[in-house]
């Protein structure tokens, strides 16, 4: 049986909002902006998300990523690359 998950990312802070909103975010495990957590799709979780819908971004995914997998997704590719388009433009300008 495949369980779907909510991928919840906190986009806005709860500073200045009622204490209840901060409590809902803590219950979801969201403490810092841009933090991402995964929760199984349940009516209880959906109700919590609905209470803070203006502060979070929610996606439904098939599998929850581990913290290591999320870190690997954010890591840039190693090395560098040379853009040849810049060289093409310089050659075109010299030809004129």
Comma- or semicolon-separated keywords:
4 helices; alpha+beta; ribosomal protein; 96 residues; structural constituent of ribosome; Large ribosomal subunit protein uL30m; Ribosomal_uL30_bac-type; Ribosomal Protein L30, Chain: A; 3-stranded antiparallel sheet
How many distinct domains?
1
Number of helices, counting only DSSP H or I runs of 4 residues or more: 4
- Mean pLDDT equals 88
Approximate shape? elongated
Task: Please write the string of helix (H) and strand (E) elements.
Answer: EHEHEHH
Largest sheet: 3 strands, antiparallel
Counting DSSP E segments of at least 2 residues, the number of strands comes to 3
Q: Which percent bin holds the helix content?
A: 40-55%
CATH hierarchy, class: Alpha Beta
Q: What's the short version?
A:
This protein is an alpha+beta fold and 96 residues long. Helix content is 41%, strand content 18%. The longest helix is centred in the last third of the chain and has 12 residues, at 84-95.
Please give a structural write-up.
The chain is α+β, with helices and mostly antiparallel strands. The protein has one domain (5-95): 2-Layer Sandwich (Ribosomal Protein L30, Chain: A), CATH 3.30.1390.20. 41% of the residues lie in helices and 18% in strands. The chain has 4 helices and 3 strands. The chain has a 3-stranded antiparallel β-sheet with strand order 2-1-3, with no helix packed on it. Helix 1 packs across helix 2 (43-51). The longest helix has 12 residues, at 84-95. The chain is elongated. The model has no long low-confidence stretch (mean pLDDT 88).
